[in-house]
Amino acid sequence: MFLGKFRLAIALDGGTTNTRARLLRDGQVVATSRRSVGVRDSVLSAGRTGLAVAVRDALAEVLRAAEGHTPEVIVAAGMLSSEVGLAAVPHVLAPAGPQELARGAVVRHLPEVAEQPILFIPGIRTPPSAGQDGWADADIMRGEECETLGAWSLLAERQVDRNASADVSANPSRTVFLWPGSHTKAVEVDEEGRILRSYTSLAGELTGALASHTLLAASLPEGLPDDPDPEAVAAGARLVAQSGLGRAAFLVRIAALSGALEARERASFLVGAVIADDVANLVRQPILDAPSRIWVGGRQPQRSLYGHLLRTQHPTAVLELDDDVASRASAIGALAVAAHFGETIKPSSS
After folding, report:
1. Which domain CATH number covers 234?
2. Do residues 83 and 146 both lie within one domain?
3. C-alpha to C-alpha distances, 213 to 90, 99, 136, 223, 248, nearest whole angstrom
4. pLDDT band at 2 (very low <50, low <70, confident <90, very high)
5. What is the Rg, in whole angstroms, of the alpha carbon atoms belonging to the chain?
6. Together in a domain, 169 and 151
7. What is the CATH number of the domain that holds 103?
8. Which residues make Cβ contacts (< 8 Å) with residue 112, sequence separation at least 6?
9. What does the pLDDT average to over 201-208?
10. Are residues 141 and 9 both part of a single domain?
């Protein structure tokens, strides 16, 4: 496996609201540092200084676990390679795998962040289709390509059977990975693990915006629950199907004024409504037309919530990645790209 190329490596990934650094030794994560700073902070502050400081501090924290050894590579993915990140790297066009991403990757030396060069991985762009509304089939991703490639590699290493079971009508050459987060991302891969296209919704950010920047804020606790109430989640899913997301969201306020739901239940209701609405729209998209399997990743509780709702609405086998694969996928995928990169990415000996 490609991981044999790097005994010690650091993988950086940044999103809309968080940045993370992970130290890997022989493919295993041995230290993690997270900062609640993302590219949204760069946009709001009209500068990248805060993001650079967050990455530098996260790097310094995981480097302490390296016990004086220099990582063979520092690789950055996600929004860190966007125009509002640390180094702007253009998307590569789908279909694409590690080799295509490596050809589009760039090395940057950022002394304010790290002493050694950093390899920045591009995202992947799905082109538009023909027709009047063909532009609406276009999509972009940054970060999920590494998660997808990493999950694929780890599952292949375990010799997971990626073919559809005999009683499921499906094309065994197509698999979809679903990554809930600030942006829900469905990513289709072929039998070789190359990414064919993606589909994105704003579900995660929409939940946060409804909870913090609308009238609903007065009816909700500070922060959404890490352990949503199952019955309230089910009620949100049920009522969004009956009345639509706009009405279901307003019912949070009705629940508060009438005393129908407690604060945690109201937050759980909102989470359930947004996710159920997202899933209902997702299953109608061409990207979910009979893949052999759908693997759901991301963090909990979204992983289980999306997995459960997908299983109720889609005939394809829906499986959830375990914590080990879900937590390592991004870093493993980034190292897969780095392994195909030819230019030197080690610190100078001079």
Report:
1. 3.30.420.310
2. yes
3. 32, 42, 27, 13, 16
4. low
5. 21
6. no
7. 3.30.420.300
8. 52, 56
9. 95
10. yes
Only one residue has tokens 């950093």, namely: 118
Write the single-letter amino acid at 24.
L
| 103, 213: one domain | no
Using CA atoms, how far apart are residues 333 and 326, in angstroms rounded to an integer? 11
Which tokens is 223 given? Answer: 């922060």
Alpha carbon distance 54, 28 (integer Å): 23
164 vs 295: CA distance, rounded Å: 12
Domain that holds residue 204: 165-315
**Where is pLDDT greater, at 334 or 2?**
334
Over range 248-255, report the average pLDDT. Answer: 98
Based on the fold, state whether residues 121 and 1 are members of the same structural domain: yes
Tell me what pLDDT residue 67 has.
87
Closest to 204 (Cα-Cα) out of 277, 263, 262? 277
Same domain, 64 and 44: yes
Residue 65: both structure tokens together: 């676990």
Does a structural domain hold residue 326?
Answer: no
260 shares a domain with 223: yes
Q: Which residues contact 186 (CB under 8 A, 6 or more apart)?
A: 176, 177, 178, 179, 198, 199, 200, 282, 285, 287, 288
d(C-alpha 135, C-alpha 187), whole Å? 18
Long-range contacts of 167-171, Cβ-Cβ distance < 8 Å, separation of 24 or more: 168/292, 168/315, 168/316, 168/317, 169/290, 169/315, 170/290, 170/291, 170/292, 170/293, 170/316, 171/290, 171/291, 171/292
Q: Which two tokens stand for residue 224?
A: 């959404």
pLDDT exceeds cutoff 70 at 165? no
